[in-house]
Amino acid sequence: MALTRILPGAEGMECAGSTLVFSRRPLGTSLAGLAALGFHQVELAVLEGWAHLAPSAVVRDPGSAVASVAEAAAPHGLEVVALKVGLGRVGPAESLCRLEPVLELAHMKVA
């Protein structure tokens, strides 16, 4: 989404839409809504017990997590450029267990 309509002089800047805007809807519906609003880049909600992708699911199968997001984003031509991460109310050891695969997810290309 070009910001020049909102911020004169913002040529070249892009604005990513967050899937949290549609957090009560399935990921595919959320992405379709963001695309309909004119976004080309998105921030994916990775929040335990809420929203579109749980860190614990990424721990179980990072490849499958990336594939499911890519499959949902592809029909809309969206690129995931940011993650909003919440690991849930867990202790330090489990936080690290969940964080490491999420960091790996950040390095995998989802477009």
Describe this structure in words.
- This protein is α/β, with parallel strands linked by helices and 111 residues long.
- The protein has one domain (3-107).
- It is 40% helix and 15% strand.
- The protein contains four helices and three strands.
- The protein has helices spanning 27-36, 55-60, 62-73, 92-107, and strands at 17-18, 41-47, 79-86.
- It has a three-stranded parallel beta sheet with strand order 1-2-3, with no helix packed on it.
- Strand 1 (17-18), helix 1 and strand 2 form a beta-alpha-beta unit.
- The longest helix is centred in the C-terminal third of the chain and has 16 residues, at 92-107.
- It is globular, with a radius of gyration of 15 Å.
- The protein starts with 16 loop residues before the first strand and ends with a helix.
